[in-house]
Amino acid sequence: MVTTKSPQGPPSDLQQVARVAKQMVTRYGMSERLGPVALGRSQGGMFLGRDIMAERDFSNATAAAIDDEVRNLVDQAYRRAKQVLVENRQVLDKLAAMLMERETVDAEELQDLLATNDVKMAPIA
Q1: DSSP element (H, E) containing 41
Q2: Judgement on whether residues 33 and 71 belong to the same structural domain of the protein
Q3: Tell me: the pLDDT tens digits for 11-69?
Q4: What is the span of the domain harbouring residue 57?
Q5: Which of 13, 26, 120 is nearest to 77 (CA)?
Q6: For residue 104, what are the β-bridge partners?
Q7: What pTM was computed for the model?
Q8: Number of separate domains in the chain
Q9: Is residue 44 one of the residues assigned to a domain?
């Protein structure tokens, strides 16, 4: 079900995006610049899905490179998301009208909307 309300809002979404991008770079080696390496050693266990503490095992220069890579990933994701929204404005306007009228749209209605309109996907980077 699609609704017009968001419980945590944009600030939480941005924090989540930055956290995932940082994990992509430091834990999963998903950075062309830094290569396929895991940076930062975890200490302790996991608590509610978060590391209790991570030990920094890299230089200030590497930390700056990590920050640059995270920024690049976030910027790239932003550009792709914006492109999808702009290219699908007509479909989004129809969805917004449905939500304004009824406040909720069920899965079947959303699937019908998407199936009967030309929805453009973002190219895979």
Answers
A1: strand 41-47
A2: yes
A3: 788 899 999 999 999 999 888 898 888 887 655 444 445 544 456 778 889 899 999 99
A4: 9-76
A5: 13
A6: 3
A7: 0.68
A8: 2
A9: yes
